[in-house]
């Protein structure tokens, strides 16, 4: 049985990383073989690239940013994602190619054709089986980011972009969801953690069962 590839996407502060960890722990408790990863930084090479890309003190040219994210993704696909899928795992990634469409395409303004070509090159056509898009307003995103950094510490370099940038990113994510409703499910995050987790479980368990993944009798 081939594995299942799931991605979590969303603007900063949307809660996707927290919910990814909570959901993975739940699925493991149900007896499923789950691997967590992320972009950038899902490989040792990627971790080093991540440190440079997201350092708020670095001045990274937009084209360099786009190409380094693509390099990280190429390494991730070949060294982590494809082997895990071939081995039959459930693999959940904190961001993937949709992030490039949203951040470097809409956010930075690179042409869609260029973004499409670079994504295709880096991914070799590998697409997620399911994407959960965590959506919230840009103003709430900013509030959560400020709370996370105590209003003092530097966030990452993308955190520090202005509201117009993050609005373009959010709009691009919603356009992806509209264009691919069979793959992308929107998760509204203005609720409690428990309420959001319950929705995620209601989505994930039937989906994984339909793909042949077996859980214990409690799920």
Question: Can you lay out the helices and strands and say which pair or pack?
Answer:
Layout: E1 4-10, H1 16-29, E2 34-38, H2 44-54, H3 62-86, E3 90-94, H4 97-107, H5 112-123, E4 130-135, H6 138-148, H7 163-179, E5 184-188, H8 193-210
Parallel strand pairs: 1-3, 1-4, 2-3, 4-5
Short note summarizing the structure:
54% of the residues lie in helices and 13% in strands.
Structure characterization notes:
α4 packs antiparallel against α5 and α4 crosses α7. The protein has eight helices and five strands; from the N terminus they run βαβααβααβααβα. The chain has helices at residues 16-29, 44-54, 62-86, 97-107, 112-123, 138-148, 163-179, 193-210, and strands spanning 4-10, 34-38, 90-94, 130-135, 184-188. It is α/β, with parallel strands linked by helices. The protein has a single domain (4-210), classed as 3-Layer(aba) Sandwich (Rossmann fold).
